[in-house]
Amino acid sequence: MPREEAGKIEEMVKKAALSINPGLQAFACGSYRRQKPTCGDVDVIVSHPDGKSHEGMMTKLLQSLKSSGFLTDDLTLAENGQHRKYFGVCKLPGENTKHRRLDIIVVPYNEWACSLMYFTGSDYFNRSMRLLAKKNGMSLSEHSLNKGVIRKGSEKIFEGTPLPVFTEKDVFDYLGLEYREPHERDW
Questions:
Q1: Which residues make Cβ contacts (< 8 Å) with residue 159, sequence separation at least 6?
Q2: What is the pTM of this model?
Q3: Collapsing DSSP states into helix, strand and coil, what is residue 169?
Q4: DSSP string, 82-94
Q5: What is the pLDDT of residue 153?
Q6: Quick check: 117 and 45 in contact, CB under 8 A?
Q7: DSSP secondary-structure letter at 100?
Q8: Contacts 24+ apart (CB under 8 A), 48-53
Q9: What processes in GO biological process is this protein linked to (predicted)?
C-alpha cells in the first residue's frame, strides 16, 4: 500500500487510542517508520508513559475501532507476557478504499523502546542487533535488553538482568554502536 495510506491508518488508530486516554502513545512501525514508499501492512504499537494505563487498553481500542467500521475482520488476538497483539484487517472510510492488514501491539512502557525498535525492523537489522547482543553476553528481544546472560551452547541457563532502556538510542549505546535513525536500518 502507498505510504500515505499507511499514515492514514496510523492516524485512525492513534485517534481512537487518544479518545480513550489522551496520554497514550501510538506509532506505526515497520516499513512505514523506516520511511519506505510502500508498506505491506501497518504495525502500530501502543503504550502509556505511566506504565499502568496500557492495561485493559486493547479491548477498549478494538471496540472503538470496530464500532466505527474501521476494523472489518479479526485474524487473531494473542498475549505474550504483558504484550497483547491483535492481527486483523481494516478499511479506511470512503469509497474505493481497500482492505489492509493491521497489527496493533499494546506494550508496557518499560518495554516501549525495545518494542519500537523490534517492530520497526528491518528483519535483518533485528537479527544483527540480537547477534551483537549475544556476542556481548546480552540478550535483546522486543521486551528488553538483558545483561549477564549465561548460555551453555545455544541454551540460555540464565536470562540475565534487564537493563534500563528508555529510548532506542539506549540500546545502541549499550551495544557500543552509533545510533541509526529508522530509515537507516534497512541492512
A1: 139, 146, 149
A2: 0.92
A3: helix
A4: TEEEEEEEEE-SS
A5: 84
A6: no
A7: E
A8: 48/21, 48/23, 48/24, 48/109, 49/23, 49/25, 49/109, 50/23, 50/109, 51/108, 51/109, 51/110, 53/21, 53/23, 53/24
A9: double-strand break repair via nonhomologous end joining
Helix (H, G, I), strand (E, B) or coil at 144: coil
Please count the other Cβ atoms lying within 10 Å of the Cβ belonging to residue 138: 21
Question: Grid coordinates standing for 8?
Answer: 492514514
pLDDT, tens digit, for every residue of 83-142?
Answer: 799 999 999 999 999 999 999 999 999 999 999 999 999 999 999 999 999 999 999 999
Residue for grid cell 488476538 = 77
Task: Quote the CA–CA distance of 46 and 108 in Å, as a whole number.
Answer: 9
Helical segments of 21-122, H only: 30-33, 57-67, 112-120
Is the pLDDT score of 81 beyond 70? no
With beta carbons less than 8 A apart as the criterion, state whether 125 and 117 touch. no
Q: What share of the chain is helix, strand, coil (3-state, %, to 5)?
A: 35, 30, 35
Q: Is pLDDT above 80 for 155? A: yes
Strands 139-140, 145-147: pairing is antiparallel
C-alpha 142/C-alpha 7 separation (Å) is 23
Candidates 176, 71, 174; CA nearest to 114 is: 174
